[in-house]
């Protein structure tokens, strides 16, 4: 596997390899010299067409901890503001010798185009494309769940994970449903019908409109950000009604099993999908998720770039032309 | 200059071989194969080639004026001629929009200068395709271009009152409104068919109901005001059902389907390759099957290409930034043969009806679509039905290269085309 | 063709002797920390530590040091899975680190281990204990404590089996396959 474009490209063995590698690399943070020489001489470009300080810094730290050179390219040029095109940006990076491009873009499928259009020869890592996927987020979420509920080893067989919120517009939800079920977890999605995509019955998960019914049987509860702008497009009538029906407040939190953890990919809308009290509680592992993000991204960069390439065997899904 | 030809050994509509003698722009004589003889006539050996009336495309985008970087009337005409067409209807979404007599006459004139196909400009229904004010339909009808087909294609005439007025207004000169059925609010920023696949790929869906609800409304309006309606690029099973229902009640509606909707499905979008991005989008296998059935039983009257050339930078990018549309003129007949003739759904007479006679009738291009008999205007296409060819994007005549069939092997090749008795294509190449 | 060059009794005696030599050289076990290089260097380190504890009646710290990320040949093969690194909490600063590995060959593994150690801390000294030294050094590295010196040719393979992984204790020398140098 030369690229990491989608969680669907990983099988259980590969996903566990990434998590195991991340666990080993996590110890680097505890050393006085927080550096490994492994990617010395490699150039990693953070090509971010969407603002995201958090994810960009995470990838930057991961690359630098492995001694790679990092270039941050904050690009403009979406379908709305026609700046330099994705193609031209890619050709420039190729000319400058990028070994890997970590790309975040508002258009679903942009990383696929970057990987397959023949513009660049290096590795492509999807840092979030439109409403499609965010594979490293799912990996760090799985890592966090595994650390708390499986002693940091093995898969997630039988663990019950519930994801609540705007699934329709969430690339985090899509990647998590795919990865968590690949690792054996039982996933339930909760939200109002308007925020659940067409065809969700064919996804490897259960669906519920009732958060209170699902909470007592949840081992890991992941809350997704819900944007107030969705109200304007009539996805739900008001912020009040949404948070009353689907928000996680203290009353709901205490109904979770004792061992259960609360997660959020960030940034949070305190008061909307999650109350401030819950966000600051002991159960909430958001800060740890961020730290785990660096280790997981180090693992991904090491496995894709640290050797001669083609480190990980995967099932490649190809969207080829009609026969 | 009078030129006469003997087309030796051709098979009209796939029937037994005959000789066709063409002179002064008409079919002068039809004899037993090998028997024709005419003084000064040039013989074109055409043994076994299928003869059909020259194809007529009721829906094509020639991009001129405004986007000559993607296509011009000349290059589009070449693609059309090589595809077996002798007449095309050029849609109005140019820059400037073809909403005045001036612009339609300009397009008409460019077609005359090129001369390879008869170019019939389509007039916009509303000014600037803005959907709020009727364009000068009467002026366009009375211009040298003699516009009879009006369409805001690219956009939907979504305002019900405006659509009603347009349907009523064109009755005065026997015009027809060709609707691009797409409810705008249901399809804001839509990228692909709305389906489980769109949910997986994270692309905003274009639900079938956005097409069907407009068609349903429009057939009822057409019935109410007693006018003709034409529905562009029908793409869903539900749309076929609604048109069938309307025809059963005697409503005067005609419908078209594109070649790509007969062959391709939404599965191709998995690659995120924008060459498959089109409006209306590629749909499901069930929709494709319903379209075959509808085209075979006549619910869908014609095949129209919706040939939509796009410059490289509008397709060589991420999906969300790409323009909608695919080339179609040069591959249309082959795709129809592949999906409808080789499968036994349609015979060659059926192809002639769907791709020549019926579109000519709807668009009132009276010289085209005439039966292959003595006295008819000699618009003829000769097809090698047994040939197979591989589509190479760079070798197509269009200025653009956005064909979804690149690398595919397709059946049937256009060998010769005569427009009004003169060769425009000979041995598969443009001939002037 | 294969030949057993060390059986389980030989290995046991070698470990005992190495343990005594480590104590002799360092005048006891104070400030010692044994770091085994996975895979098989780690169980060897634990056995040496257990032996030293028996002799001195005092505990000795043991850890593992995976050197995969410091290898100089990373780009020649696809990225390898990492093994466990576990450094005792007190760290290595100012202490005597004894690296333990099963086979010493080109010396590149030990070079990588030295780089890894320098990123973790600054020991007072680093010593090297190996079960088998098969020669053919490519770098100026030499062992301090050796179980057995085993002259080999390049094509031959030295296979170390340990109870903890392979169910038995045995060092085998295998001939070069037909046609290799």
Into how many domains do the coordinates of chain B divide?
2
Question: Given the structure, what is the number of helices of chain A?
Answer: 11
CATH C-level class of the largest domain in chain A: Alpha Beta
Based on the structure given, which CATH architecture of the largest domain in chain A is correct?
Answer: 3-Layer(aba) Sandwich
Secondary-structure class of chain A? alpha/beta
CATH architecture of the largest domain in chain B, by name, is Alpha-Beta Barrel
CATH topology of the largest domain in chain A: Rossmann fold
* Gap from first CA to last CA of chain B: 13 Å
What is the radius of gyration of chain A computed over CA atoms, rounded to a whole number of angstroms? 19 Å
* Total E-strand runs of chain A: 9
Runs of chain B with pLDDT <50, length 5+? none
Task: Explain how this protein is built.
- The complex is a heterotrimer of chains A (323), B (432) and C (181).
- With 323 residues, chain A is an alpha/beta fold.
- Chain A has eleven helices and nine strands.
- Chain A has two domains: 7-133 and 289-317, Aspartate/ornithine carbamoyltransferase (Rossmann fold, 3-Layer(aba) Sandwich), CATH 3.40.50.1370; 135-285, Aspartate/ornithine carbamoyltransferase (Rossmann fold, 3-Layer(aba) Sandwich), CATH 3.40.50.1370.
- In chain A, helix 2 (53-65) crosses helix 11, helix 5 packs across helix 6 and helix 5 (135-149) crosses helix 11 (286-305).
- Chain A is globular, with a radius of gyration of 19 Å.
- Residues 313-323 of chain A have low confidence and may be disordered.
- With 432 residues, chain B is an alpha/beta fold.
- Chain B is globular, with a radius of gyration of 21 Å.
- A five-stranded parallel sheet of chain C has the order 3-2-4-5-6, with helices on both faces. In chain C, strands 1-8-7 form a three-stranded antiparallel sheet.
- The mean pLDDT of chain C is 94.
- In chain C, strand 4 (96-104), helix 3 (108-120) and strand 5 form a beta-alpha-beta unit.
- The A-B interface holds A 78-79, 85-87, 105-110, 112-113, 116-117, 129-133, 171, 174, 197-200, 202-203, 317-323 and B 191, 194-203, 205, 263-264, 267-274, 313, 316-321, 404-408.
